Known about the structure:
heterodimer; A: five-stranded parallel sheet; four-stranded antiparallel sheet; B: five-stranded antiparallel sheet; 14 strands; rod-shaped
Amino acid sequence: MRILLVEDNTELATMLADRFSAQGDAVDVEGDGAGADQLLAHSKFDIVILDVNLPNKDGYSILQSMRERKDSTPVLMLTARSEIDDRVTGLDSGADDYVVKPIEFRELAARCRALVRRRTGQAANVFRHGNFLFDRSAKRAFVDEIDLNLRNRDVQLLEAFLGNLDRVIAKEDVADKIYSFEETPSLNAVEQAVTRLRKKLEGSPIIIRTVRGLGYIANAREQ
Amino acid sequence: MNPEPGSTASYSLRRRLTFAMMTGFLLILSILAVALWNYAVAAANRSFDLLLEGSAITILGRVSSNANGITVDFPPAALEMLGLAEDDRVFYRIFTAEGETLTGEADLPGPEVDITNDETQYFDARYSGTLVRFVRQRKIVAIDDQTLPVLVQVGQTRIARDVHRNALFLRGMMVLGVLAVAGIFFARMSINLALKPLSGIVTDIESRDPSDLRELKASPPREIASLIAAINGFMRRLDASKDNAQNFIADVAHQIRTSLSALNGQLELASEPGKPEELQRRIGSAGLQAKKTIALTNQLLAHAMVIHRADNQSKSAVDLVDLVTTAIENHVKQRASTGIEFEFVRKDALNNPVILGDAVSLQEALRNLISNVEAHAGDRPCLRFTIERSGTGNRVFLIVEDDGPGIPHGQRANALDRFSSFGNSLGSGLGLAIVKAVMDAHDGTVTLGDGANGGLRVELSFPC
């Protein structure tokens, strides 16, 4: 990954840069808000890690300028808990995710990977996470290179869940996504379909949880 | 009282009262002035009218009849009586009912003669360029076998009369004016006297140093006793909250110092020479200690944030179902491999219960409750959220139940206090205190109880 880390705390920035580099990622560090804005206007990154408080231009303004330039590079905000407000939690600012300081590197790295994956996955029609691979165009999914032999219904269901990772989807919404109007499925059928898919996904990092009373939530486990 | 000490007062009590007093006095004064004027006019008229009437009667007394007709033996005294008013001119006319002037000015004005009326008539009329007061009287004179009414009309200009009237009025007004001025003066005095206790309080407060939050010693009059009581109550609360803040800071300082000392100690230990596996273990426990410190710091800041937001954040409509959904999503996102099984129960199926609140603080409260379950309640804990309305419909309950070990009855009373942690290595002891602070900010309550599956049941009750 090519990462731009915008953080004015030198110790933290150096530590993060070292650890990303150790993983084989390319990291550019910028400590100045206006400088970061300049850099972003001219270079392309896979992900931007953006601190909120920066000299000369704050994180929100940088993000706003990016989105105004139609730059859709994933942005992960770093924020102190005291700065968390509706802008961040609602991700109204246009950020894709946020991590609260003090940062745990492993969590930060995992979130970065997830963001990049989500983006490239959508673009490339291939979703890859750990030992799991889903090819949208071929409608096939693999765990450790072994075909899961998904049926059409499973593929539709999997697409619905992968498109809504980390979000609760109501059972009715799942039904809407996988059945046409003529089919009028029962919610029972949805449950059975999910159970079957879950069984097929055993051994993959994709977890589909049932939240009784609300629906389902799928997420990708870090390995 | 010092009138302008940083005068943010929007009005002066004294000025208000004085103004009200003056208005009252002015009103009474004008009513009295009208009355006094009427009285002066009446009094002046009465005394001068008596003179006029006396004069007319004297003249009529000299009207008699003989064979030649009516004769008037005009008495000079009649006019001398009126001559006492030096500047006034006097007019008279003696005439018959038919209008034949016997003597005097024939052109004196006057109303139509009514011969049946034998009462003395008074009237004002213009004559010879000025307003003249007239009196007219009638006498029946017998000539031969007939009776003939003879009238006498005497007039006098009004100069002396008006002077007399004005003097009466002015003297009266002077007395009233003195009374009014005295009244306002006494009113001012009594206002000052009434406000004196307030100035004592001002001096008391102004002379205090900021940390002096003792009660005001003023012995207030009944009328402002409640004000003083309110100020004293406020001071007590301020004092309590200051103590709270000091305790909190002391607690925080203690906790952070302890945590950092432990971390420091472990790092020192790790830097000493030793076997590789021993070193690994020491670094491991230093890392754990650092994690604890981070968790503690996070919780302290969350606590501070919640309290800060309680004072400063305006509330908006929060959908409880959305709130729970987001809390679950956030937890799953941050702990991808969480073992918690979430369950959501709605006993109110009609529409989503909406409360007025601060979504960020509420989210923080739920985050703490979920983290508690993650930390305390075993491998695959079940966490059930229940939303329920009270029978009367004026409260909404959000109940969070788990199937973990719960909190022993004896410790529940203190569980909502700061830094009360029950045997958990990573717990900061702030989680439930944060929940409590959030609920306080929402005029709600937290109640701990036994969960349906044996664990802890936390009931959040919101007004709606």
